[in-house]
Specification:
The complex is a heterodimer of chains A (about 350) and B (about 500). Chain A is mostly helical and about 350 residues long. Helices cover about 75% and strands about 0% of the residues of chain A. Chain B has about 500 residues and is of the alpha/beta class. Chain B has 3 domains: about 230 residues, Rossmann fold; about 150 residues, 3-Layer(aba) Sandwich (Rossmann fold), CATH 3.40.50; about 80 residues, no CATH class. Helix content of chain B is about 35%, strand content about 25%. A 6-stranded mixed sheet of chain B has the order 6-7-8-3-9-10, with helices on both faces. In chain B, strands 16-19-20-13-21-22 form a 6-stranded mixed sheet, sandwiched between helices. In chain B, strand 19, helix 15 and strand 20 form a beta-alpha-beta unit. In chain B, helix 13 packs across helix 14 and helix 14 packs parallel to helix 15. The longest helix of chain B has 16 residues. Classes of the chains: A mainly alpha (about 350), B alpha/beta (about 500). Chains A and B meet through helix 8 and helix 9 of A and helix 1, helix 10, helix 11 and strand 18 of B.
Chain lengths: ~350, ~500
């Protein structure tokens, strides 16, 4: 499949080049790059902890990567996944605390709904602002990030923290809201590893996002709007509706991070839990070429780096886990540079097209 | 004067110039004609040093010259005026002309002597422009004169003009030809790249015809005619006249009453326009571009905010004013937009995906799982019908629309809009940037749609097109209907006057 090969080529070049440049840096600080990389990737691929934690860390990145992807496909840059996932995680915990005594058959769907709809709501705000007043979603999503973080911190601190608890976290959610860890089903896989059903939900979402964008009329309208809003309008598509819809779907996906975090991992809302998942999601979507399958692969790579970084820190002499930041930075740089190269190539072939 | 010998130029897989020989005699007007992509502009850009040839040689005044850049070309007395003008809008005419060839020393600018020289040149060649006027205040025709003066100021003896008449009104074209003849009298040589055959016959002495990167004909203008040139360009017999029978006119489909449209800045773009279009007729709108044609069609298609519209738009007795584009399509209104890249196509989408735009949300396209999922088979079937029925090439529904030539993109759009069997078709510039062979096809399709009872409103900047296709012809000027003429009777001069003077 030449098209698939071509689609994979640039991300692959970006990753390989990043590792080469990272290797040179490791040499410069006086360590053996091969050894460092063996630590980094070896620890990420070890059974069961390495693989378990890599998949666990990949879960939120798949959700946020998908969220950014859906925005991109509509021509929107959702930088607000971070805020959306905070609001959603808190809302999930709130439902789990407030209705703690419900049967799991009701409580879990309620919690899911809380995560999905609160994320969708928070993202729909900049969507509506753009559709109604034309104000730019980048500015508004960034500003809403600050509001979201401050808002949920306030509610945690003053309303939902256990009295006397020195940690910024809410009280626990009801037992009935817990979703199973995969250790429950996989023999030899310990339940202490927080990898849970939300990972399977993330994979399911990749499939659903694919179906939604490429197989339904709504996805067609979203992509048409992202590809050429003037032509979409000509085809009888309401651009304003697509903007709000795409933002809401994007926010819903970001919100599902709350399911992984609250229902599958900590069983409470823990303030400041997100390790920049919303922002890393941008890199995941870009490296994954705005395709659900690419998002899975990119999320796995970033998760593996993150997990492996801990081991590099502990076992190598000079290199610290900051090397992970360096690698991620270079990858993002090259992915962005690809767009730059494409732009240059596009201009050149554009010049050639002028011949007549 | 100029001779290209065995020039070959390759862009990637495309052989743009294949052993091209062109001989231009001094003191003549030489036309280079060919369809889009025939290699005309490439050959001339090589002569101007914009590209370098892969092989072959360029002779100027009988000597082999090495032209590596436009700088070399200018030094040899070659000037080129591009299709898109290269002028600094905020600077004056004089400043634009001397830009890059400033008189005076390094530190001082001798504008006075430049002004005198420009005035002398403009008198000599009858190129009337005011040197102190900022370029942004000039009309397109005047800007073109500035471009000509720019070349003459650099002592060009040979002027290469790339599609010079594309942006001019009929009256301006006449004035432009006077200027060209004047230049020839003064001993200049002119090369004019074009695909408009009537202009070739009116102005040139000799013609070189190109097709697929090769020179396929060299003729004296006086020994040839439009049919022969078209045959050479396309490689087969082409019907230049539109053949149509008298219209069988039915009931009124579209009726405009006192329609006015303002733009975002509040200026009136359509001013108190009333007319009707009946079944089975083509009503043409002629006019200089920018006189409200775009706004008229977009308003009828439902792409203008209702708040900007006053008056009435009746379609089969219903007032359309507050209805969106989707509802209008459902009522049976189709639209072939003037700008296919901006409005008509999703360039990154496949031909199949483009073929369903506008009907993508309803059966038979969106038919699965309660009408939410697209029926891939129905999409493919529709795409195949359009691609085969309208001879879209290459016939591969999976290709992105971007990969097609302009003519094939246009055929795809026309096929898509025909497929819904419209009651009213809004067509704007149906053959802009389209090759002669495809133009013939598109014209035939429009006439056959009319014969099947469709009401057609046609806007075109090509006077010949709009007069030969229309059954009734309205002339638009500054947003008003300046008059209605019988396209069979009216002369081009009459229509041209209505277009430019408005009465």
């Amino acid at each position: 499949m030449p098209k698939l090969a071509r689609d994979l080529l640039f991300p692959l070049i970006a990753v390989v080049t990043a590792f080469i440049i990272g290797g040179i840096l490791i040499l410069l600080v006086g360590d053996n790059p091969i050894q460092a990389y063996r630590l980094l990737l070896g620890s990420a691929l070890s059974w069961p902890d390495g693989i378990g934690y890599t998949l666990f860390l990949a879960t939120p990145l798949i959700f946020t990567g998908l969220a950014v992807l859906v925005g991109f496909r509509c021509g929107l840059f959702n930088i607000g996944a971070e805020g959306q996932l905070y609001v959603a995680a808190f809302a999930t915990a709130w439902v789990g605390i407030t209705f703690a005594n419900l049967t799991p058959w009701l409580l879990i769907p309620f919690c899911f709904a809380a995560a999905i709809f609160s994320g969708a709501f928070w993202a729909a705000i900049p969507g509506v602002l753009k559709a109604r007043f034309g104000s730019h979603e980048v500015i508004n999503t960034i500003m809403l990030n600050f509001i979201a973080v401050a808002l949920v911190s306030y509610f945690t601190q003053y309303h939902y923290k256990a009295p006397g608890d020195p940690i910024m976290q809410t009280v626990s959610i009801g037992e009935g809201a817990h979703i199973a860890r995969l250790g429950k089903f996989v023999p030899g896989f310990p339940e202490r590893i927080p990898l849970n059903l939300a990972f399977l939900l993330a994979l399911l979402c990749c499939f659903l996002v694919y179906l939604f964008l490429w197989r339904t009329k709504w996805g067609y309208e979203i992509r048409a709007t992202g590809s050429n809003p003037f032509a979409a309008e000509y085809g009888g598509i309401s651009i304003r509706k697509q903007i709000v819809l795409a933002m809401a779907v994007s926010g819903a996906l970001a919100g599902m991070v709350g399911i992984n975090e609250v229902l599958g991992y900590r069983y409470r809302y823990y303030d400041g839990f997100s390790d920049n998942y919303g922002f890393t999601g941008i890199a995941v979507a870009l490296l994954g070429r705005n395709h659900p399958v690419g998002v899975i692969l990119a999320a796995l790579l970033f998760a593996a780096l993150q997990h492996g970084g801990i081991y590099v820190d502990g076992f190598s002499e000079h290199v610290t886990k900051d090397i992970v930041q360096v690698l991620q930075g270079i990858i993002i740089l090259f992915v962005a540079a690809e767009l730059f190269f494409k732009w240059i190539l596009g201009r050149r072939s554009g010049l050639q097209r002028l011949r007549a | 004067m100029l001779e290209l010998r065995q020039i070959t130029k390759r862009f990637g897989d495309v052989l743009a110039n294949d052993h091209v020989d062109i001989v231009v005699k001094p003191g003549t007007i030489h036309a280079i004609v060919g369809e889009n992509g025939a290699g005309k502009s490439t050959a001339m850009r090589i002569a101007y040093g914009f590209y370098t040839a892969d092989s072959g040689e360029i002779l100027v005044d009988g000597k082999v010259r090495d032209i590596k850049s436009p700088h070399d070309a200018i030094a040899l007395g070659i000037g080129m005026v591009h299709q898109h003008f290269m002028l600094v809008e905020t600077m004056t005419v004089a400043e634009n002309i001397i830009l890059g060839a400033e008189p005076g020393t390094e530190l001082s600018l001798d504008l006075k002597s430049a002004g005198a020289q420009i005035r002398q040149l403009s008198e000599e060649f009858k190129l009337a422009v005011n040197p102190n006027e900022p370029v942004e205040h000039l009309s397109v025709g005047q800007q073109q004169r500035v471009e000509l003066l720019k070349a003459l100021y650099r002592h060009a003896r040979l002027l290469i003009l790339d599609e010079p008449t594309a942006v001019l009104t009929p009256l301006e074209v006449e004035e432009f030809f006077v200027i060209l003849r004047r230049m020839r009298e003064q001993g200049k040589t002119v090369i004019i790249i074009t695909h408009k055959l009537s202009e070739v016959l009116a102005i040139s002495d000799e013609v070189t015809v190109m097709r697929d990167g090769k020179v396929v004909g060299r003729v004296q203008t006086k020994d040839t005619n439009a049919a022969e040139l078209a045959r050479l360009m396309v490689g087969r017999e082409v019907l230049l006249r539109v053949e149509k029978s008298d219209p069988k006119v039915g009931q009124t489909e579209l009726e405009l009453k006192n329609l006015s449209v303002t733009d975002a800045a509040g200026a009136k773009r359509i001013n108190d326009v009333s007319f009707e279009v009946r079944r089975g007729e083509i009503v043409g709108i002629a006019g200089v571009e920018g006189n409200g044609q775009t706004e008229l069609i977009e308003t009828l298609a439902g792409l203008t905010e209702p708040a900007r519209i006053t008056g009435h738009i009746n379609f089969e007795g219903k007032d359309l004013k507050s209805l969106g584009a989707r509802v209008r399509r459902e009522l049976g209104i189709a639209h072939i937009p003037e700008d296919r890249h901006r409005r008509g196509l999703l360039l990154d989408f496949s031909l199949a995906e483009n073929s369903i735009l506008g009907v993508h949300y309803r059966p038979p396209i969106a038919a699965l799982v309660g009408g939410i999922f697209l029926d891939e088979n129905a999409v493919q079937r529709r795409a195949t019908e359009i691609i085969q029925g309208f001879d879209v090439r290459p016939p591969n529904a999976a290709l992105p629309a971007r990969a097609l030539s302009g003519g094939n993109q246009q055929k795809l759009i026309i096929g898509r809009e025909y497929h819904v069997a419209p009651k009213l078709l809004l067509v704007s510039q149906p053959t802009r940037g389209v090759d002669i062979g495809a133009i013939e096809f598109i014209h035939r399709q429009l006439v056959s749609l009319r014969d099947n009872g469709c009401a057609i409103l046609l806007v075109s900047a090509e006077l010949e097109e709009v007069t030969s296709l229309s059954d009734r012809l309205l002339v638009i000027h500054e947003g008003r209907i300046a008059g209605e003429v019988d396209p069979k009777q009216a002369t081009l001069e009459e229509i041209g006057l209505l277009m430019t003077r408005g009465h």
